[in-house]
Structures are given as C-alpha cells and as structure tokens.
Design goal:
The complex is a heterodimer. Chain A is mainly alpha-helical. Helix content of chain A is 71%, strand content 4%. The radius of gyration of chain B is 22 Å and the shape is globular. Chain B is an alpha/beta fold. The chains are: A mainly alpha, B alpha/beta.
C-alpha cells in the first residue's frame, strides 16, 4: 500500500493527502460534536467554513490554475444562494426529504450560477490581467444590485418582479425574495455533513479537471498563452471552461451557505466577500488547493476567536494576515523549510533502504 | 535540381501587378539563382482580335521555386505567394514567394532584423498578413487563427523559448498532443472510461516522442528547471507532438555548444526521415544551415534576395554583401 503511494506521481499523491486531510478533519469534528466539546458559536461556523472551503477551492481554479484574477466570485455565490433558496421552497411539497431537497436545490443553484458564469465570461474572456479583474469586480456588483431589486413570490406558480412586492400580483402564497431585505423564513436544510460532502465534491471536480486533458490546456494557457495557441489550443474555450466550472461550484456553495441561516440579504455577497475568498486563495498559495482549504478554515475561525478583544479584532486579523504573508514569503524561512524537507526526505529514503534490506513489505 | 515549370495564365489588367512580376524576374535573374521560364509567346488567338482579349498581355508568374527532386510531383507543403505585412509605414516583409517541398529541410537566413521571425509569425497567423496568400498543403489559410493553423499542420518553436514552465516535461508534450487525443471535460471530471483510455494514450505517445531526443528519463522534471539546450529540444518535441506537416524551427541551435549542435543536426534529419515532414528553419549557425538545408532562402530588409542550394547561396555576391557589406 505504502509502496504504491510512493510510486504515484506528485499530483495524485498531493490530491490524496488533501482528501485524507478533509476526511480526518471531518471525523475529528464529528467526534467533538458528539462529545459536545465545542462551543455553540463554533458549531454555527461549521457550515460557513465548509462553504468557504468550497469557494476557496473553486476560486483557486480561476486564480491559481487558470491564472485570471477574478474579483466577482461572491456574485456567482449569490446567484446560487438565491436560486437554491427558491428551488428549495418550490420543491418542498414534491421532495419532503430534506437532504435530497438540499441536493437537488444545490444542483439547480449550480446550473444557474454556471449560466451566469457563461453570460459574464463571454465578455470578460476578451480581457486579460488587470482589466479582467476590474470587469469581474463590476459584474459582481451588478449581480448584487440586480438581486437587490429582485422580488420573487410563490403561490403555486413563480412570480418575478424588479419593482416591488405589490407588482408581483400574487394571490396568497409567500414572498420568497423581498428585494434588499433578501430572503426570510428559510428552511435551514444545510448540515455539517452536507457541507463536508460538498467540499469533497468540489475537490473531486477541481482536482480531476486539473489532472485531465482540459486541465492541462487550462494550465498551458496560464503558463504561456502564445505557446498554447501555437500547439492548437483554443485559449478562450479553456479560460471560459475554468471560469464557468468555478462559477457553478461557487453557486452550489452559495446555496449551502444561504440555507444555513434563517434569513439572508443580497448585501452579504458584496465585494468584501469576493475579497475574503481571494484572501483564502492568496494566503494558501495560488494554485495550492490544500493551502487554500487550510487558509479558509483558519481565517473563518480567527475573527470568532478574536472576539474577546472586541473592536480591535479586525485590526489584529489584518496584522495576522500581513504577518503570515511576510513570513511565508521570507527567503530565510523558505530555506529553513526546504532544508527540513530534504532532511525528512533523506530519513524516508533511509527507511525505504532499511525495508528493502529486511525484505519487509512497507 | 528540378524546377517547377508550370505556366500559369495570368490576366494582368493592372500595370502594378505587371510591374511586380517584371521586377521579380529581373531580381531572380540578377540573383543568378534561377531564371524565370520563357515568357509565354502572345497567343495566336489574339490575331482574331475580338473584344478585350486583344489588349491582354500574358506574363509569367513568379516561378523561381526550388524543391528537392523527390518532392517535385507532390503538392508542396507550403507555398507563399506575394506575402507581405506592413507595420505602419514599414514593410516588414514584402512580396515573399516561397515553396517548401513535402519532405524538404529548408533554411531561412538573413542578417538581424531581416524579417525572418516575422515570416514565421505570418505563417502561424500570430500576425495576419497584409497581402498575399499562404497555401498549406494546397489549402489557403486565409482567415484562420493561430490555433487553427496548428491543427491544420504547422508547428513551431520560438526564438525565446516558450515552454509551459511550471509543468513537467511529460505534461508539456501531452499539451502538444492536445488535438491528437480526444477526451472531453465531463470524461475528465467524472473519470469515465474515455479518460483512462486517453490518459494511457497520452502517456505512451508522450514518452515515445521524448525518446526521439532521449529525454524520456526527464519526463517527470519541471520544464522550467531544465538546462537551456534541453528546453530547446523539449520545444521541438512539443511541436512534433501536434502532428505537423511542416515544422518551423526558430534558431534551434541558439545557445548550444558545437557537440549539441551536431546532435541537433542529426536529430532534425532523423525527424524528417521518421515523420516524413518538412522542416523550415531559421538559423545563424552556418555549419548547421549549410550542413542540412536542401534549399535556402535569404531575406534582407523583408525581401528575398536569393534562393537556391547551399552552394549557390554561398557563391552569391548579394548574400555576401547583405552579410558583410559592400566592398569598395
């Protein structure tokens, strides 16, 4: 087993370690939950952490793998969040079983977010670099403002309006999305296990995509666009593919996130949220999916843990961020880590030699 | 030496076109490399003198192409007619006529700034030509983009190496194989049977190609960390992986030592023999050019100043002048 693990190429070994990390973390949290060993504020954070981890993985596909700086990820998250909410309400009579309803709603949320991804992606993919970043930022804000003016009601049929509740023309029924007041009275379908499964699914999709023909093409465009074109790769197609897959996954995470709360407003998905997700990716190392996962988990917990210092907590949060960035980019630190790594590698090699000498199966 | 002696019927109504042809013929004659075939005699029919035909003057199209004898009867893999591009007022390439035979190793040489790399960029549609036609294996490439031209069969390497630096050597070649092996996004994400079959094919073919340059041992290395010479070789392998009909090499021997250059020459010939493709290369190393190129085109200030075999080029006074300056 161990030998097979060592014989694998680096990419699939990395992926397996990441899967293992997530599963172990989930098992530990479940154990702690059953022992009632964690505070209620932490319990409330479990689903958001899963959602943010999932968002960090999907944004990593755009920023790290495809190499495009997207500042509108929260926009796709919000499209998913609100379509997911509406779908869950509409499907309530048809699918009484909660988890299944959540699953179906998340799939629908993913599809709608993907459509939004295509619509935004087509104009955006004409741009590169800073211009692309600015335009994605703008589209994120546009989506937020559209949702701020969206009214959706359900009385056996869906009613939409961009004006006010009265113009929905409902007879009876329920207002699902109420403009800037967002959605209220949400059935809280999201669970920690659902979040865990979504994280696994997101990781599965992104890592499998990256280690396939399409993923290589995406990375080729990132590394050298002209060379990628010269070997016959349709650069726009693969940039758009990364963008849309990430949008779909963000939509699913958005649905999970929204259905964790009893009410949610469009303002939640503003520029700050996009930047927050980007911070996870950058702090974890662009293109480093495992790093992004760890960063998402830690940075979601950190403000909660800093609550005791009151008003200064965002200040400390910023200082921690800067310190981590400086520390992880420090040449000396990196050299120290490298030398430690090579020492470990040597020790492991010695083990292998010992195993071979003893003829034992490691 | 065989010469393409087809006569084209050209109705030249505009004086400008006629002038171009005349200048072309004169230049070719001066170059003493090849002379245009005999001017077609005015048609006997013209005596009847009906309508506009009487005013038509027949001239020979540019016809100073050279290809190896074995390729003479095959469609040339590349034919450029009156190819040109302007950057503002500068005619970077002007009236380039070029033919590369199906299995020819051809050289494109000239002093610095002569427009050699611009020609490659025109052929691969990095730049869209201002004038002229490019026929790839008889097919007009007008309106195609870089990716499409690559799929149709032109592969290239770059003067300043452009590898996918952060990826492994094997992945670089697999990306070259992108259009040779099919596997859609869904098969990739959900690991369907198609994925496993295609990955096996990708892997096998990548290693097979790397073996051409004995690089299979380095398959797992990061491309950006390879030594310079190996990066150049990897670029050639990646270009070969696209399954080209014509391989464009932009200074393949730059930065290589004489031993490596010697090896490279053997390898280029071997690639041509094994894959039965044509090679057009830009190179400043004259040992390499004169050693393996069968036909050579010399470019200066965006214009062709000579075409011919290595021997003819070496003896050509205009080429000597372009490289060394005029003797008083």
């Amino acid at each position: 087993m161990m030998k097979r693990f060592k014989g694998m190429d680096k990419a699939s070994r990395d992926t397996l370690i990441t899967y293992a990390l997530i599963i172990v973390a989930y098992a530990i949290m479940q154990a702690l939950l059953s022992l009632h060993a964690i505070s209620s504020s932490m319990v409330g954070l479990l689903v958001p952490i899963c959602a943010y981890i999932s968002l960090s993985i999907s944004l990593n596909l755009v920023v790290g793998i495809s190499g495009e700086l997207s500042l509108g990820h929260a926009g796709f998250m919000s499209v998913g969040a609100f379509t997911g909410l509406v779908a869950a309400q509409v499907l309530a009579p048809a699918i009484p079983f909660g988890p299944l309803r959540l699953l179906v709603s998340m799939v629908i949320a993913g599809i709608f977010a993907a459509v939004a991804g295509v619509l935004v992606g087509i104009p955006v993919m004409r741009l590169q670099g800073d211009y692309l970043a600015i335009v994605t930022l703008a589209f994120g804000e546009i989506i937020k403002n559209l949702l701020n003016n969206l009214y959706v009601g359900y009385d056996g049929a869906l009613h939409f309006s961009m004006k006010d509740v009265a113009s929905l023309g409902m007879n009876g029924g329920k207002v699902l999305i109420n403009g800037p007041q967002g959605a209220v009275g949400i059935t809280e379908l999201s669970t920690f296990t659902a979040g865990f499964l979504l994280v696994l699914f997101t990781l599965f999709v992104v890592t499998n995509l990256v280690n396939s023909r399409s993923g290589r093409a995406i990375m080729a465009v990132r590394d050298n666009r002209i060379a990628a074109e010269s070997v016959g790769i349709d650069t726009t197609k693969y940039r758009l593919m990364a963008f849309v897959v990430a949008a779909a996954l963000a939509g699913m995470a958005g649905a999970l996130y929204a259905m964790n709360f009893s009410s949610i407003v469009p303002k939640k998905f503003d520029f700050n949220t996009s930047i927050l997700i980007l911070v996870f990716v950058v702090l974890g190392g662009m293109g480093n999916i495992r790093g992004g996962i760890i960063a998402a988990a830690l940075l979601t917990i950190l403000p909660e843990k800093l609550r005791f210092i009151g008003d200064y907590r965002m200040l400390i949060y910023a200082i921690v961020l800067i310190a981590v960035m400086l520390f992880s980019n420090n040449e000396q630190v990196r050299m120290a880590v490298d030398s430690m790594k090579s020492r470990f590698a040597r020790m492991r090699d010695d083990d292998v030699i010992d195993d071979a000498a003893e003829g034992g199966e490691a | 030496m065989s010469r393409d002696d087809r006569t084209h019927e050209v109705s030249s109504e505009s004086k400008r076109t006629e002038g171009t042809y005349k200048a072309q013929s004169e230049r070719a004659a001066r170059g003493a490399v090849s002379s245009p075939s005999a001017e077609p005699a005015p048609s006997a029919d013209s005596k009847k003198g009906h309508g506009s035909r009487a005013r038509t003057k027949m001239v020979a199209p540019p016809n100073d192409y050279l290809v190896p004898e074995r390729d003479a009867l095959l469609t040339p893999v590349l034919e450029c007619r009156h190819l040109g591009i302007d950057f503002g007022g500068l005619k970077a390439v002007d009236d380039l006529n070029l033919m590369v035979g199906k299995t020819e190793i051809a050289g494109l040489i000239g002093p610095n700034g002569a427009g050699k790399t611009t020609v490659f960029n025109l052929l691969t549609k990095v730049y869209q030509p201002t004038r002229g036609t490019i026929l790839l294996d008889g097919q007009d490439t007008a309106g195609m983009d870089t990716a499409r031209v690559s799929r149709e069969g032109i592969a290239r390497t770059f003067q300043n190496i452009r590898l996918f630096d952060s990826l492994t050597v094997e992945d670089n070649v697999k990306i070259g194989l992108h259009n040779q092996v099919e596997c859609g996004m869904w098969s990739g994400i959900f690991r369907l049977l198609r994925y496993w079959l295609s990955e096996k094919e990708f892997h096998d073919r990548a290693l097979e190609l790397l073996d051409v340059f004995n690089m299979a041992d380095h398959a797992g290395d990061i491309a950006g960390s390879l030594p310079y010479g190996a990066q150049r070789r990897l670029e050639i392998v990646r270009a070969l992986a696209t399954g080209p009909k014509l391989l464009l090499l932009d200074e393949p021997a730059a930065g290589m030592n004489p031993v490596e250059t010697e090896e490279l020459m053997d390898n280029i010939v071997k690639i041509r023999d094994d894959f039965q493709i044509a090679v057009l290369l830009i190179e400043h190393d004259m040992d390499l050019v004169m050693g393996i190129c069968e036909g050579i085109v010399v470019l200066n200030f965006g214009k062709v100043i000579a075409k011919g075999t290595p021997e003819e080029i070496q003896a050509n006074p205009q080429v000597v002048e372009a490289y060394l300056g005029k003797q008083d």
